[in-house]
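hiii so um. not sure if this is the right channel but i have a protein structure encoded as tokens and i wanna go backwards to a sequence. like what aa goes where. can anyone help
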């Protein structure tokens, strides 16, 4: 349950960041949700290989760590994109 609440909060945060960049927020929200579940599944597989099937808590913690990593990867990708609405001084050279 806490994982779903965290995913909703992080999805809203990514949506705001994408809108600030002038991109479709729904697309980036879908990227986050897909990345969350894919990396969580990968975390479960790696956790099973490392800890074995008897250590469920360690496996789940590793899976959550992988899932949260997807948020930071997508956020960093969005942060590298230019903001929309900034004045482009180079295009305004020579006006007046």
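sure thing!! here u go:
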């Amino acid at each position: 349950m806490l994982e779903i609440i965290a995913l909703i909060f992080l999805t809203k945060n990514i949506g705001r960041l994408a809108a600030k960049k002038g991109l479709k927020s729904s697309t980036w929200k879908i990227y986050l949700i897909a990345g969350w579940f894919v990396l969580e599944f990968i975390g479960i597989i790696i956790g099973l290989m490392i800890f074995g099937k008897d250590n469920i808590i360690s496996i789940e913690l590793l899976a959550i760590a992988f899932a949260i990593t997807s948020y930071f990867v997508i956020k960093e990708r969005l942060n590298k994109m230019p903001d929309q609405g900034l004045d482009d001084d180079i295009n305004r050279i020579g006006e007046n």
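oh and The chain has a mean pLDDT of 90.
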